[in-house]
Amino acid sequence: MKIFISVFPLRGTLVGCLWCALFCGIFTPKLSAQETPADSLKLINLTEVVVISTGKKLDHQKQRKPLSTLDEFLESSRSINMVKRGAYAWEPTMNDMASERLAVTIDGMQIFGACTDKMDPITSYVDVSNLSEAQIGSGQQGAVFGNTIGGGINLKLDKSNFKPTGWNGSLESAFETNNKMRVFGGELNYSDEKFYANTDVIYRKADDYKAGGNKEVNFSQFEKYNFSVNSGYKLTDDKFISATLIYDEAKDVGYPALTMDVSLARAVIGSVSFNQDTLFGNLSNWESKVYYNTIKHVMDDTTRPDVVIHMDMPGWSETAGFYTQANFNKENNHFFFKMDGFYNKSYAEMTMYPTNSNEPLMFMLTWPDVHTKDVGFYAEDHINFEKSSLKLSTRLAYHSNAVADDFGLNSLKIFYPEMEKTNSRFLKSFSAQYHTPLSDFHFNGGVSYGERAPSVSEGYGFYLFNSFDNHDYIGDPNLNTESSADANVSLTYKRPVFEITATANYFHIFDYIIGKVDSSLSTMTIGADGVKIYTNLEYAQLFNASFSGRYNISNAFKLTGNLSYHRGVDNDGENLPLISPVSYRSALDFYKNQYSVSLSVEGTGEQTNYNPAYGETKTAAYATLSASFGKRFFINESDLFVKAGIQNIFDTYYSSYTDWNNIPRMGRNIYTTISYSIN
Amino acid sequence: MKTLKYIFALLILSVSFVSCSSDDDENIPIETNPVEGLNKIYEFSEADHSVEIYSEKQILEVGYNEISIRIKDLTNDKYITNARVTWMPMMHMATMEHSAPHSMLSNSEESSVYKAHIVFQMASNDTEYWDLRLNYSVNGQPMEKEFSISVVQPADGLKKTQVFTGSDDTKYVLAFINPKAPKVALNDMQAVLYKMESMVSFPVVENYKITVDPRMPGMGNHSSPNNQDLTYNAATKKYEGKLSLTMTGFWKINMKLLNENGVVLKGEDVTEDHLTSSLYFELEF
Questions:
Q1: Is the ipTM above a cut-off of 0.85?
Q2: Is there a single domain that holds both residue B165 and residue B255?
Q3: B13 occurs within a structural domain
Q4: Do B10 and A20 touch (CB under 8 A)?
Q5: Hey, which residues does A200 pair with through a beta bridge?
Q6: A425 vs B contacts (CB less than 8 Å)
Q7: According to the 3-state scheme, what is the secondary structure of A158-170?
Q8: Most CB atoms within 10 A, among A11, A252, A415, A661?
């Protein structure tokens, strides 16, 4: 049964949008009454920003492992944990919530993975070479990026933005001993006041990694390359257009925690934007973007031994969207408005090859070509009082899903004979965040409410096998909208040499969506324990608290530490899955005279709150120690930076609560990075 | 404020962007030919009339066969609507002969087409053959025509007819009718059940129940939900229920036959140790 995803039907409309956007720009009367442009960045009051950019030579110093994968960068964030199904394509979680409860965007673009088994979180389709930073907003602070419960992550692309730097380029390479990962990267940039172009390419290839005690983890290899171009052109002093293209392809990716690997994961991501300093005289920093991305993901079990039934499981995801945003300042009010929309098509199929080759192939649609439309309006007002400030924000969105494929619709009607082809809902989000300094203390507190629609798998998945709890999952198109009321507080004590922060947040999630066993159903996957149907729980509660500190021992030495506690229970007081046990990390960094040294420890306590019903087993406490050493050399005009480090020095054999099916993590690993940049 | 217009245009575009949908207008032309899509399998001409026999299949097969008959008055080239056609299939074997379960021909659906079905229990071969006797009238004149027909085993080799003796020592014939083209969906399922009263009498069995449990032997005996057991529909004289198939492939429809008192006459439950019922149909798609 062959299937083709038709050429995007709305491409015409998109081009229209683009034209319209350009039109607006070109014919907008030039406004001379220029006021000092407000600092737009400050207005988005984000929880955390993780600096990624490898291109900036100075940043290398700050980073313990400059050419590590994006996954490792994100994991270094205080607020993000990564669920691991292998060495590649980790899935970010925030406040103990994963993909479906987060809004993850790339430069404001909505992208959705094409794998029914979450083997391709969208963070796997970019690389550190493309990015300047990850902007992280916890809870409804992330609603600027989309509908969310747990928070939002925006991966910001690295751009020269008309800095008069002229030509520059760099070459980078890294090697890691544990899995023999080879990384080669390079970039070439040109930028002047009128035009800029950034290009970069990165290639990674890794063999199987070895867990502590030199135990090889089979099927943990991967190979990927990523290529990106972005450029901008100034039309006039106050307006410019820019365009971005990213091509990312991963091949032969092993997933040791799963029963299948991936032979191809490919993304093409493109956008065109138009920026203008002012609009209507009052609005500033007007930015509009149209974008399109397409993802193909092919699972593969041909290299696995003892496969009961060989399966082909390809998936496609196509998204087109736009946003237009601007700032508006009036006295103490700093407004930010954004209108955005996207259209996504998700399609995935499964073909199984019967042992008896005379029998016909077994075919099903696991994602029945679900078309999702979403149009939202986001507004925030950052009000500055004499000493304190208040941020109010809201997102209102129309969201609809339609099952476009009749084969898929009929399949789902086996379970839901009365189901409608389309399902639409109105999603709301409100939040208020207050900040006030009290002498050396800073108090931050807020309350918010947010809603999200079920994901494609939750709403329309058809026999999706989850190897974590060994169950097949069926979506429910009639799920209620999940909503969350949350509160957060944080108190910081700040002195010049040290800083201590205590934060806590609590989410009360209504209609929490999770799979529940339906014992009347028969499994599809051979060897599965049962079938779960996505269901709304009456409610679930999540609580996260952390305590972090920084101490500048001297100008050269800096000590940081972080301790966090997490708890998640459902309405019966049962533990929710994938909730972190007590975890901690601490680091001592030294930086002087172009030398940088760091020593860090990271670990968790025993996982006492786990739930076997979701396939969890108790993970033991662990701690690992890592060290790095770096030196920067100047050679004429050029800059050479060398960094080496060792992770998991004692070669501890361990796995954490985020490790799918408790696959062990990497053992001792020595890495080296060399980067050479020519200015 | 000129720009406002463009912003407005952008908004309109984005709204049209969300309201796009495709409407598939399916205008199926009204069928005029009552035997459209059927295969003419037999035809013979007499002096003043001719008889045409149609089937959905290319050739008659063991199992359920829906057959349409038309009789044409050659004097006016019109199909006769008052022919009162009756029929009797007969199997001629070396030592015995027997009939096959069949329904009464009726032209109530389409006045010129006499429609009914025959369930052949076995195939014909060199020494054992089927013939079909037709009785009808042309302009008030009774006619009789007997001719031999060939019946083959279905080419796909799938079991869709069961001839068995129940625990009540009665011989039954159970034949699969629908779905003819199974889909990954909740299919309407239909079957006919006859009992053998004598060599020539096969009355319809009424008000029994047939449970259905579809399984995929190639997928660890995977089953599907929301099937509906077959119950007797007095209007169609058939057993009707729902059959859900969760994927394409080879399916075995395990069944149990229960009489009106709920006593199992044939078939067993499918369990982990007992992978198949002795009463089953086979499907492939």
A1: no
A2: yes
A3: no
A4: yes
A5: A187, A228
A6: none
A7: CCCCCCCCEEEEE
A8: A415
